[in-house]
Amino acid sequence: MWSVAPTVASGDTVILWLGRDIIQALVVTPGKVFNGRYGAFPHDALVGVLYGSKVFSQKERGFLYVLRPTPELWTLALPHRTQILYLADIAFVTSMLAVRPGSTVIEAGTGSGSFSHSVARTVGSKGHLFSFDFHQDRVDKARIEFLRHGLHQRITLAHRNVCKDGFGLLDRADAVFLDLPAPWEAVPHVKLALRSDISARVCCFSPCIEQVMRTVAALNENAFSEIQTYESLLFPQETYSNPAPPPVSQITNALKESEIKREQRRLRQISNAQLRKRKRDEDADDQNLKRPRLQDPAPSDPGSSSSVPQPVPDADPDHRAPADLPDNPPKIVVSKTIPEVRGHTSYLTFAILLPSEFRPRSHDATTLDTNIEQSATKQEQSVQ
Ligand SMILES: C[S@@+](CC[C@H](N)C(=O)[O-])C[C@H]1O[C@@H](n2cnc3c(N)ncnc32)[C@H](O)[C@@H]1O
Q1: Residue 354: pLDDT band by 50, 70, 90 thresholds?
Q2: 282 lies in a domain?
Q3: Which of 30, 179, 282, 321 is deepest in the core (most CB within 10 A)?
């Protein structure tokens, strides 16, 4: 597939990672300059750097990371010509269709080639992907990309309306994936293209439930079994590190200290109020009653058994004040859901076509099969 060398070479397709939402593919072409949000990056500066490196812009105002492409990164970076399949759906479809090294898979339509790249990697050099689209320009662009990414031996790409003309393949595929506006129209052709000696599988992607209902009806009419539909949602998480909260003992000590200070302030206020009251009483006695004064000890007399409250000692001599907290508290890793969900909701309808000897007879649409079979035989050579 893509370059496996440790360093970037002229002509390599690389992924430029400028941020979570700015991921771009680039063919390294000496002499050209990539102008991005974070400055200008001459392609020459990328040649020879290790894949995964951080590269600074010409004026060192910004930077980006140069990454080796993978099907997952390609899905995030590819030029969109259509709606595409994202990782959650791709992974689920691949798993449910039991696609593995050596599998023969059919997909329609090719679209932007997001699904094609992942499947081509999974089937490996011993498997094959037949990919169809009825849009000529999309076929041409996908062909260039598959060639550039070294996938042309694993993918046969054909310009074809699969609903009208079928796949031109007979008893050939282990699995079929349909991402079309009207997949039910292609279901009779899927039946012909799937192998009749194994339990072969199909998946139809549909964004709305009305399409699912028509697809399920078509699958039933064509003898498919174990028909199941799943709704698929993607909730990516963002992970980052925050300062860890101080240990509980430190927090309780800080609370105790603040309680002690508040109690000392309260006792001081009581003592001052008592002093003021005593002063007022003495003045009143002197002026009005002329009676001998009670000799209360002065509240500030050292050592006296004054009613002035004494400072409350520290409840815990080992406590640490907040000021004693370390300058660089340890960090903890937290995770939260990213609000903008990139993968959209889909319905994925799966079904199995049992080996021909186990298919229910009541479902045999013999006339239809014969017609499509004849046309498939004629067209098979044009696909290969
Ligand atoms: C949503 S896109 C497929 C995206 C693709 N799964 C991906 O991951 O990039 C649907 C494609 O199906 C093609 N298409 C629609 N009807 C078709 C038909 N009857 N035969 C062949 N291709 C068809 C469209 O031209 C379009 O490119």
Answers
A1: very high
A2: no
A3: 179
Q: Is residue 296 part of a domain?
A: no
Nearest ligand 1 atom, CA 177: 6
User: Which atom of ligand 1 lies at the shortest distance from residue 78's CA?
Assistant: 9
| CATH code for the domain in which residue 50 is found | 3.10.330.20
Q: What Cα–Cα distance (Å) separates residue 325 from each residue in 253, 331, 346? A: 12, 14, 51
Which structure tokens are listed for 108? 């329609």
Q: Whose CA is nearest to atom 18 of ligand 1?
A: 161
pLDDT at 203 over 70: yes
- Residue-level pLDDT at 296: 42
Q: Map residue 204 onto helix, strand or coil.
A: strand
Q: Supply the DSSP symbol for 309.
A: P
Pair 219, 125: CB distance under 8 Å: no
Residue 90 CA: nearest ligand 1 atom is 8
> Residue 52: how many CB atoms within 10 A of its CB?
11
Q: Is 133 annotated as a binding residue?
A: yes
Which residues does ligand 1 sit against, CB inside 6 Å?
A: 82-85, 108-109, 111-115, 132-135, 138, 161-163, 179-181
Rounded (10°) angle between helices 87-96 and 114-123: 40
Taken as a whole, the chain contains a residue count of: 384
What pLDDT is attached to residue 251? 87
Question: Does 283 show up as a binding residue in the annotation?
Answer: no
